[in-house]
Amino acid sequence: MSTVKGSLTIVYEPPFYKAIFERRFNSTYEVNQVNLGPSEPKLTLTYDLVIHHWNKIIFFKQTVCGSSVFERRINPKHLQRLAKKNIQYGVGTKAQQTLQKQLECQKVAHQHNRHTKKKDINCARPRNTKTQETLKT
Question: Which CA distances in Å does 17 have to 32, 41, 81, 115, 116?
Answer without folding.
Answer: 14, 7, 22, 34, 36
